[in-house]
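Let us practice reading a record.
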Amino acid sequence: MSFIALVTLVVRDYDEAIAFYTDALGFELVEDTDRGDGSRWVVIRPSGTGHGTALLLARAKDEVQRASVGAQTGGRVGFFLHTDDFAADHARMAAAGVRFLEEPRHEPYGSVAVFEDLYGNRWDLLQPT
């Protein structure tokens, strides 16, 4: 096996999730296919990469899934978004309304700041050293 292709992220609504991840985070929409049963196959990934792990946005279908929206990692940082230009991406995301939970930190492993997506899932924006 060479890499993990997709990670599922349970969302409330396809269109609001697509808008947040593409507009606020700058991801690209890779695929949005109607599956014919009211569900869609929606894949996004950071723009310009053309490879690596992508996210499958899956709309919650029942109460159990709806309860997991925004809490898929138990309140811990569960997603790590690497950047080559921390300052520029942090400023762009903050201007787009992304909620950062802390000021940028400069650690031995790199520059980092924790932010939340529109559902409350925690992410690290990280520029490794």
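A brief commentary: Strands lie at 6-11, 27-34, 40-46, 54-59, 77-82, 99-100, 105-107, 110-116, 122-128.
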